[in-house]
Specification:
Strand order of the largest sheet: 2-1-4-3
Order of helices and strands: EEEEHH
Largest sheet: 4 strands, antiparallel
Strand content: 15-25%
Shape: elongated
Number of domains: 1
Radius of gyration: 23 Å
Structural class: alpha+beta
Helix content: 25-40%
Distance between the termini: 49 Å
């Protein structure tokens, strides 16, 4: 069974394992009906929508790619060869 996050109108939020068909549960705090929150959307034709409260790391990753391009090619492989020589 998958793990889903449920949210209640009273503000309670919790994770629990339930069947995929279950969309509502009783809130453990107030007893009202709580609904299952959305998870990442699946999209075959493009990109999936990231929930608003999730962090977008694409900008940080782009900066990492730019920084890694500045390292001379073969530097990492040379460091690995040197480490293997020391261990031998």
């Amino acid at each position: 069974m998958p793990l889903y996050t449920f949210v209640c109108a009273c503000g309670a939020e919790w994770d629990t394992k339930v069947a995929r068909e279950v969309n509502t549960l009783g809130c453990p705090s107030c007893g009202l009906s709580a609904h299952r929150s959305e998870v990442y959307a699946f999209n075959i034709g493009g990109q999936a929508v990231v929930p608003r409260d999730e962090v977008d790391y694409s900008r940080d990753f782009k900066q990492f790619q730019e920084a890694s391009a500045e390292v001379p090619e073969g530097t990492h492989q040379a460091a690995i060869r040197e480490a293997k020589k020391r261990l031998a």
